[in-house]
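Input structure tokens:
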């Protein structure tokens, strides 16, 4: 790829370079040179680009990612996406690209007021939870040392709470719905732990989630916006509150059909005009901020946990409280493409619960056919803690 990305600097220079560039503001990448680099990468891109200029190159859809060749000369690690949009794809990055993705993920912290030694707890996929006596992961970045412990979003809330009250982290990060689920299911206070900043990510942060997290931790919530395919796209700024986009590392186009992203640091399996499902708009007024990266607003996020009732009203996943029914062990709610609802559940005495569950579901989502299915649906798509999903198209049923 053309060497505009900071990945071509020594890893020790990544943080200072990303900080300096954020302050200086972006320079426009040479799109013709970028197209040349993509043509040189593979026959796949040479054919795809042909003689077109930048805007004439067809956007790369998610279903096409598997066809993008991977540079055989590069040591590549594969990651599966979480499948927020309905199915998973495998993304390949080299070791160095993975490390750079972390550097980009940590970029907002270059502007946080945090001590030189930061303790952080990160909510990740899974059921495991670190013990406070486990050794942390160490990471040096931007003049700070980060000591990190991980907890699974499906772990016992009591174990996560124990980790938090023992470590007293300044920073909590991780999967937004997992942090919400933890707060909802915990009957213990979090406000005195001393958490200064919560940085949720991985999912569109609903306003009610932001309020819940702010109130629970008495901490500042600074959201992050990214995707598994591209890495960190934008981050909420502690100075101006807006979302600064990492446009110096990922070329972003606010296409009305969905954001197009071209990561400039990826050369193993590069993505050219990759279409993410989110609709974003560039803010027209520049932020009055020390960070000079342009800011954007997400107007419609790709997500699959919006349930829409028969009147077209969108319902928050937080509104479903089926676990209050005695005897119910687990549940998962899915909305099919035709709008019908399937409630998968496990219970000690399933038959006696059916009626109450159906009544609760009909009351929560009026105007939709309801089907109750015993046995917990094992979601093949997505490892995140999500009890609610939908295949109902947001295009025909606009959210908000
Ligand atoms: Zn700012």
């Amino acid at each position: 790829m053309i060497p505009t990305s900071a990945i071509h600097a020594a890893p020790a220079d990544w943080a200072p370079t990303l900080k300096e560039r954020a302050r200086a503001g972006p320079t426009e990448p040479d799109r013709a040179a970028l197209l040349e680099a993509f043509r040189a990468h593979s026959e796949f891109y040479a054919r795809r680009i042909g003689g077109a200029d930048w805007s004439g190159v067809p956007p790369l859809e998610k279903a096409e990612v598997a066809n993008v060749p991977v540079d055989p000369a590069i040591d590549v690690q594969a990651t599966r996406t979480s499948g927020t949009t309905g199915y998973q794809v495998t993304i390949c990055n080299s070791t160095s690209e993975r490390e750079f993705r972390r550097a980009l993920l940590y970029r907002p912290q270059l502007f946080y007021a945090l001590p030189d030694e930061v303790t952080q707890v990160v909510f990740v996929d899974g059921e495991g939870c670190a013990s406070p006596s486990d050794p942390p992961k160490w990471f040096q970045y931007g003049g700070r040392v980060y000591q990190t412990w991980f907890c699974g979003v499906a772990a016992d809330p009591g174990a996560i709470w124990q980790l938090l009250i023992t470590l007293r982290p300044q920073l909590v990060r991780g999967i937004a719905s997992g942090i919400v689920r933890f707060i909802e299911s915990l009957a213990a206070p979090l406000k005195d732990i001393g958490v200064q900043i919560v940085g949720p990510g991985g999912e569109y942060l609903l306003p009610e989630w932001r309020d819940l997290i702010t109130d629970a931790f008495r901490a500042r919530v600074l959201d992050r916006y990214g995707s598994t395919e591209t890495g960190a796209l934008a981050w909420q700024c502690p100075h101006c509150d807006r979302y600064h986009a990492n446009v110096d590392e990922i070329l972003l186009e606010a296409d009305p059909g969905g954001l197009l992203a071209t990561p400039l640091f990826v050369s193993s399996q590069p993505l050219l005009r990759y279409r993410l499902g989110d609709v974003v708009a560039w803010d027209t007024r520049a932020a009055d901020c020390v960070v000079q990266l342009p800011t954007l607003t997400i107007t419609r996020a790709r997500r699959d946990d919006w349930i829409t009732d028969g009147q077209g009203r969108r319902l928050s996943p937080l509104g479903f409280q089926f676990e209050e029914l005695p005897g119910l062990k687990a549940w998962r709610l899915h909305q099919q493409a035709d709008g019908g609802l399937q409630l998968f559940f496990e219970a000690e005495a399933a038959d006696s619960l059916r009626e109450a569950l159906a009544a609760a579901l009909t009351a929560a989502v009026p105007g939709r056919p309801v089907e109750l299915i015993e046995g917990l649906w094992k979601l093949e798509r997505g490892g995140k803690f999500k009890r609610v999903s939908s295949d109902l198209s947001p295009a025909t049923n606009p959210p908000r």
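Residues 237, 239-240, 242, 244, 287, 289, 291 surround zinc ion (CB under 6 Å). The CA atoms of residues 240 and 289 lie 6 Å apart.
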